[in-house]
Write a structure and sequence with these properties.
The protein is α/β, with parallel strands linked by helices. It contains 14 helices and 23 strands. The strands form 7 sheets. The protein has a 7-stranded mixed beta sheet, with helices on both faces. It has a 5-stranded parallel beta sheet with strand order 9-8-7-10-11, with helices on both faces. The termini are far apart.
Amino acid sequence: MNNPVQMGWHARAAELKPRDQAFINGRYVDAASGERFDCFSPIDGRLLARVAACDQADVDLAVSAARAAFDKGEWSQASPGYRKKALLAFADLMAAQAKELALLETLDMGKPIRFSLSVDIPSTVRCLRWYAEAIDKLYDQVAPTERNVLATITREPVGVVGAIVPWNFPLIMAAWKFAPALAAGNSIIIKPSEKTPLSALRIAELAMEAGLPEGVFNVVPGYGHTAGKALALHGDVDCISFTGSTATGKLMMQYAGQSNLKRVWLECGGKSPNIVMADVENLEQAAKAAASAIYFNQGEMCSAGSRLLVHESIKEVFLERVMHYAGQFQVGDPLDARTTLGALVDAGHLQRVQHYVTEAQQQGAQLRQGGSRQRESSGGYYYEPTLLEVTPQMTIAREEVFGPVLSAISFRTEAEAIQIANEVMYGLAAAVWTRDLNTAHRMSRALRAGLVYINCYDDDDITVPFGGYKQSGNGRDKSLHAFDKYTELKTTWIRLAQAP
């Protein structure tokens, strides 16, 4: 007999009718060209929708609408209380539609429904509520000047923000951009990934229902090389906030230079080291966290702990425990509430992951666990949790796989661990497991990463910044620091008349 919970989600999926048009200036519209692209589910290959394929003409319309709304001032010059009320209403509407939004995320991206419902949607709502509440709690500054001068330092919205969003956490990553951008008074244009456009299109109408003025919230689905490029090159876009691959991030900077020198904020790839010292206090906790750090969300996370650096004295026992905890991530139907590891996003990505594993073995890596496609008869794209023993010079130890593939590397000394951790081009996250506070402090300062976890991995809250060093990008999402991306600082220098 079928699982009744599973049957419930499948029934919901059968009845779902996703939005498939662009959202520009407060209404759903077809692409100007009339073109559409097919949006397939990685769960079983089913066609979910034929979505408007936006290009330059549609981006021009969206930018014009966003600029007109910004200049009109109904949002950009509104009182903090007005914006706060509207964004809280927006968050409430998303919370009320949590099951539908979670289902869209799972169908579109392939992640288990249990995590879409318990992680993605609550985190998105929390993000929006937090920035809404921050609006009327930010103060500007008065500089310490001589007595006959008043110098104020104030923040103003930057203008029109283009947000280019990845496919691995479609709504969370979008919210990390649109929540602070809207809170600051900007107009926004979201370009969702062509792999996962459906949830962004759905929340656009919720934004309008919450009271955001026409033109303030726009969504232009389409391909990166058409809609994304047009947005990044547009001369009337003031800011691009991008999350995605490092290679595409470099293009964003080039496009800014070729157009209007718009500010560009990048959150790119990672190859994060998870370092387990010989004196790790709780080996079981560390092993469980190491498995979760790479197998959660099918390993499709830029901050995934994809390199496991283990002291040689505990390597064998530790890897055995990691493989044990990998068993908690069972490949299955993402619409089954029991499933803990879903589908990779599409066929091309599945091939990419398999290529890295095959190449690693050709280079001498030892396959300790996994290494195969799963559930092929379903029509979906599934890959089992995989563990390889590798050396730091191997391709798989240096490049981002973005799948459920863990590369284990042994080391002898603290200095060697730091060297291995820092020698890749990325610098997003890192972790150290040790009972020695001195070791923790030394290593956290030596690691070239934007996030360093001590005796944990991927702990998270909206109150702390997220972003990386080196080719993992620039700027920070989350926390009050995100306002630095979406505001201009203005100094106003007033010389006061001398007292008579």
